Amino acid sequence: MTTRDPQATALARLAALFADETRAACLLALLDGRAWTASELARHAGVAASTLSEHVSRLVAGGLLTEERQGRHRYVRLADARVAQLLEDLAAQVTPERAERPRTLRASSAGSAMARGRTCYDHLAGRLGIAVTDALTARGLLEQERGFALTDAGLAWFASAGIGLERRGRRPLARACLDWTERRPHLAGVAGAALCRHALDTGWCVRIGSERAVRVTAAGERALFDLLGVEAVALR
Amino acid sequence: MTTRDPQATALARLAALFADETRAACLLALLDGRAWTASELARHAGVAASTLSEHVSRLVAGGLLTEERQGRHRYVRLADARVAQLLEDLAAQVTPERAERPRTLRASSAGSAMARGRTCYDHLAGRLGIAVTDALTARGLLEQERGFALTDAGLAWFASAGIGLERRGRRPLARACLDWTERRPHLAGVAGAALCRHALDTGWCVRIGSERAVRVTAAGERALFDLLGVEAVALR
DNA sequence: CGGACGTTTCGGCGCCGGCCGAACCGTCCG
DNA sequence: CGGACGGTTCGGCCGGCGCCGAAACGTCCG
């Protein structure tokens, strides 16, 4: 007891950052990959600004968030893709039991927009994410049966579509991310991020309001069908 | 504030299970994939049996552990591979800063045995795990550059070596698991588990004492060289 | 049957951490 | 310059949780 396992200590300390409902709500909100101000998070989580300030400070100190100060604002975002992945993994573990039906119509429609298409940190999720992942797989661009990897044809497809895949650090090119709403894996990793970025840059999708939900535009439907054979009906 | 996000609640509740040093120590110990009795865990964690009993009950109630009662013993193990993976992910996030040097000779030699070879829930890790993963990759049996997947040749190799790969559930055939000591990915998933099971069954490796560390036998060195070209020096 | 032993329950203690409001600090802008 | 506003710090309150030891329970075994 005098000599505790330092790994256990560190693990407990890390987990403690997630182990508070207010902080968890903030982290899940930040899973949209964008920077939020402290007061936005306070409103979102329903706590006083002072309370939230302390939470954010702990998350930053713990390496889960990075901050950028601009004038009187404190912008904060998830530190990196590793943190986002960890958060996804925890959320995925938890969501099976989230069988509760939404109570209000507003919550229900917001939920269905999220289920239709959303960002998951820096890649696409929801039926949109699944449709793209399935289309890539059906065309032999992505291997799912024996793991999760791009094929030769997949590499060529990204190149021909003008979507650059730059390897940086140890982040894998392709990675599976379990979809909360679909209960199936969708494409994450460098390729997932590049595809999502391209989709938003070229207007295939636009964000709905200030939340994580995205909507596929008419141009996007056309492009997804032309390039991947994604039927518009799969996005409804 | 009256209507809290149920997902945030569930996430915080799950994380809270990891957010205690004693529970974390138990979970890390259970990462050897075997069942421990409550009193073994109490001794390992350095707390009273009564204290540990409550911890174990919480972990079982939270779905992280499953229990088997045999007579007056309560055996407990990680609930499934998903839990083990989550634990690995959390541990991997934490270990980079674990730069502390071991203090005692005993801890140091135990540490070096663990670094040489160990099990990580149900697959091989440490230099042994890395050596096997590298050998598979070098021989074109495993694809790492574009994700983490078995190749056609890889499937054939497992079949010819008499190592069955039965897909059950959604567990991927091949998956990357970040090695704590080597800071590089090693093979996990169905293939990793099958390989580890085969290695222990056929006597390629034996467990050292009652811990997670494993030792490669002379027969194991021969087999690993013959089948995969693994040099014995990579295992030292 | 009776003692040993693994486990659990219970009461009680102490600490940590989340919460708020009030005061304060900096920045922005009219 | 002065008010508005975002953010932070501080003190104080409260609840939850981890810890223990004592007592009870169940099983095993001589």
Automatic annotation (TrEMBL), chains A, B:
One protein family per Pfam: HTH_20
Residues spanning the membrane: none
Gene3D superfamilies, per the entry: Winged helix-like DNA-binding domain superfamily/Winged helix DNA-binding domain (1.10.10.10)
Domain annotation HTH arsR-type: ranges: 3-98
Protein species of origin: Streptomyces indiaensis
SMART domains the record matches: HTH_ARSR
Name assigned to this protein: Winged helix-turn-helix domain-containing protein
InterPro entries: ArsR-like_HTH, HTH_ArsR_DNA-bd_dom, HTH_Metal-responsive_Reg, WH-like_DNA-bd_sf, WH_DNA-bd_sf
Classification of source organism: Bacteria, Bacillati, Actinomycetota, Actinomycetes, Kitasatosporales
CDD domains: HTH_ARSR
